[in-house]
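Lay summary. Proteins are chains of building blocks that fold into shapes, and those shapes determine what they do. In this project we predict the shape from the chain. Here is one chain we studied, written as its sequence of building blocks.
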Amino acid sequence: MRSLVREHRLAIEQLVQPLFVVERREDAGAIEAMPGIARFELERAVDEARELHALGLRSLLLFGIPASKDAGATSAYAPDGIVQRCARAIKSEIPDMLVVADLCCCEYTDHGHCGILNARGDVDNDATVSLLSAIATTYAQAGVDVVAPSDMMDGRVAAIRTALDAAGASDVAIMAYSAKYASAFYGPFREAAGSSPRFGDRRSYQMDPPNAREAMREIALDVAQGADIVMVKPGLPYLDVLRAARERFDVPLAVYNVSGEYAMLKAAAQRGWLEEERAVEEILTSFVRAGADIVISYFAKEYARRHG
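And here is the predicted shape, written in a compact code that computers can read:
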């Protein structure tokens, strides 16, 4: 009876599994702060994508860890960059896998910030937007289906859309990290991607956690600029923002169940403080109940394995 009258259900097709791909063999391996998650070499990343597809997961989110970094994030827009090569390989082997590529500079800059720095050491919004447009174009040429700008620069969605259309990639969608907060829950990801800032922090361009109305303005701007999907990140501390976005915007809505949320649940489960399977199902369902159409989660593979 409870199953019959259940109000919300999570489908495997709604889940997106993040996938870390590295250029150097020595960078591959398990991520200590995220038990069960690893960085893969290119060939292994394709194998992992094949395994995800077999479990019913039809979408993945690519993050690249390059062999070299510099102030201009040049390896991010190289046609033979690690994300570009991985996207080509996955689309060649698994054509109907939806490949989403995170679009940011933080993994590629030697200073770890999400954009190009000016002479004062501040992130230069407009220079970064131009760079993001160049990266998006190479992603599209590599076969990426969806580009996902996570930088929080102003005006980047419109610029990326213009660049993609000019390159003949009008069918490539944009999933914008529209309401991305300057959160304490990103720590394990920064270990995984090697993207911690070498100085300062990202509060000058990521959102202030107490602000909810601002999130609605940010989302509205991205929708107006042509975003096909908008996102709230992180997930658990911002369910109210997710619900508010669902009530206001009639567009596909994603949520990112981030690395810190994953790590704390894993740590509690390993100590026997939580029943992991039930807790994961409860958390993922909470995102759907709050209004998410798409749930990006490091738990996606485990959930699909149990429910597929």
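What the prediction tells us: The chain has ten helices and ten strands.
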